[in-house]
Write a structure and sequence with these properties.
Order of helices and strands: HEHHEHEEEEEEEEHHEEEEEEE
CATH architecture of the largest domain: 3-Layer(aba) Sandwich
Structural class: alpha/beta
Number of helices: 6
Largest sheet: 6 strands, mixed
Bound molecules: zinc ion
Strand content: 15-25%
Radius of gyration: 22 Å
Number of strands: 17
Length: 427
């Protein structure tokens, strides 16, 4: 046993030295690995349902207004330096606004080949509240669990403020990953019901929605420095931009083929049409000669270290692509629509009831306060379409007798938006 541990240690030490970006990871990888453990085989379906992601993106141009998101910051601190000053919080809000309005000072450093796909997301953030909680807890990422205790008062953290209507960001000291070393800078759960994410990647419960960030990489004027294995991370507030990207439905630009530390694969994609096919994370070096995969469609684009959803150094990051923006805006009109101030009446999951659940042959659906015709789709957890229909009746039955045993998503859309409900077929 001791021999095995030694081997593992040597292997990771080698990785850490040879490829320094692997010292720091986004907890999103942990989410994926956790779910591979919980749902064996799910990684093989990562790519099967991107058609729906594209369709969402096309719908996203329907509304042109600027979306404004209220933000609640939770400072959960144990040692004095973790109790970050208000000026650091303000700087982080500014970095978010700069990134999502394309006002970042390095925006023109993007290479010419990517200029046409660089976009202004027209998403803005404003500080609604700051909550400060002193704790005695350590927040540790274990191989198969994330430190969501920071989001719960009775676990030494700070309870979320209505996560459907606020972006909650928890700032705390994230402990180094035990045994294997390395450091998680932050993590976020994607929304429920997005086709470009596997089932089970979403938050375990509504109260856990939001973003967690290590206190040393928060803001761009932070006196605290994160040093891992001798390398000091250059923090400019863009880790939070990256995590908010996940929170709004974006995947890593290289498509997460390799699991925990981001292996090398051109076969996995991020589900976004205009990003280059990229086989692995860029690393912090921002090397313009990197081109891990051949792109289809004529022009073979290099790897895009300018993208916020890469693991490149924060100084090189300056861009969300128009495809990524369409996807995030679509999320703000659908899965996270209550986040943004809007005069429209939103269509919410409270309006849809389905029963019996689980079912063996028939599913009854009731939609209250229905406006106009609705479009429905049933997809399985790989994203494959099993049924689609247009219906004018607020109450109807769906025949699922031919469906095999498993979990399915019922998507219902009307002109106010869309909701997704999960149901189980059991024979
Ligand atoms: Zn990430």
């Amino acid at each position: 046993m001791k021999f095995i541990y030694t081997l593992i240690t040597v292997f990771y030490t080698f990785v850490l030295v040879a490829q320094r970006p692997n010292t720091v990871v986004c907890g999103h990888d942990m989410v994926l690995d956790i779910n591979e453990k919980k749902y064996p085989g799910y990684q093989s379906v990562l790519n099967q349902s991107f058609d729906e992601a594209q369709r969402y993106s096309q719908n996203a141009t329907l509304r042109n207004e600027i979306f404004r998101i209220p933000v609640v910051i939770h400072i959960v601190w144990r040692n004095e330096e973790e109790n970050l000053a208000d000026s650091i919080i303000q700087s982080q809000i500014q970095v978010l606004n700069d990134a999502f309005r394309l006002q970042n000072s390095n925006r023109d450093e993007i290479r010419d080949i990517f200029k046409d796909i660089q976009g202004d997301a027209e998403i803005e953030f404003y500080l609604k509240d700051v909550k400060r909680v002193k704790t005695n807890e350590n927040f540790t990422v274990l191989l198969f669990s994330l430190p969501d205790e920071v989001k719960q008062q009775d676990e030494g953290g700070s309870d979320a403020v209505d996560t459907e209507k606020h972006l909650n960001i928890w700032v705390c000291k994230i402990q180094p990953i035990p045994f294997i070393g390395g450091q998680v800078l932050g993590y976020a759960y994607p929304p429920l019901g997005l086709a470009n994410w596997p089932a089970g990647a979403e938050a375990p419960s509504k109260d856990l929605e939001g973003v967690v960030i290590d206190f040393r990489v928060f803001g761009n004027n932070n006196p605290n420095k994160l040093t891992v294995q001798g390398f000091t991370h250059e923090a400019l507030g863009r880790t939070t931009v990256h995590e908010v990207g996940h929170y709004l439905g974006l995947r890593h630009i290289w498509g997460d083929g390799g699991g925990l530390f981001g292996g090398d694969s051109c076969g996995e994609d991020d589900g976004i049409e205009d990003t280059p096919n990229q086989g692995a994370q860029s690393g912090t070096e921002c090397d313009p000669t990197l081109n891990t995969c051949v792109d289809s469609g004529g022009i073979d684009l290099p790897d895009m270290f300018e993208n916020y959803m890469d693991y490149s150094g924060e100084a090189c990051q300056n861009t969300f692509t128009k495809g990524q923006i369409a996807h995030m805006r679509s999320v703000l009109m659908n899965q996270r629509k209550l986040l943004v101030n809007t005069k429209e009446v939103a269509f919410t999951s409270d309006q849809v009831t389905i029963y019996p659940n689980p079912t063996s042959d028939k599913l009854t659906v009731n939609v209250s306060d229905m406006e106009g015709e609705i479009t429905l789709e049933i997809r399985d957890m790989t994203g494959s379409l099993h049924k689609s229909d247009k219906i004018n009746n607020p109450s109807f039955d769906l025949d699922v007798s031919t469906f095999s045993t498993g979990m399915y998503m019922l998507h219902i859309r009307n002109k106010q938006g869309s909701v997704a409900s999960r149901f189980v077929v059991a024979k």
